Predict the 3D structure of the following.
Amino acid sequence: MNEMRNCPRYHLSIPTRLLITEPRERREIVELKTKDICSEGAFFDTCYKLPVGTRVEMDLILNIEKLVQISGMNSCVKLMGEVLRQQSDGFAVRFERNYEIIPLRNA
C-alpha cells in the first residue's frame, strides 16, 4: 500500500471514547485505544467494524502525569471525524479540523 500521509504518525495507545453519530440508527458508544495517531487521524486496533463513511465523535483521554501533578486533572481532546478505511485488524478515522481540549476531573 502506498504511503499517502502528509504528517508524521506516532505509535501511541490513547484511550478513546467513540460515539457513532451517523448513521443515526446505529448511535452507540465504544471504548477503544488508538494504535497510532497523527494530526490528521488515527488508527484503532480492534475487531469492532465500522463502515467507511461512518461519522464519529471522539474523546481522546490524555493522561499526562505532569499535568495531573500540577492541576489534579487529566485532559480530553474532543473531536469529530469519519471512518476512512476498514481493515481486518481495525479502522482509520480522519479528523475534522475543529477540536476542543477540556479538563477532566479525576475520580
Q: What stands out?
A: The chain has a mean pLDDT of 85. The chain has one domain: 15-105. The helical segments are 65-71. The chain is about 5% helix and 60% strand.
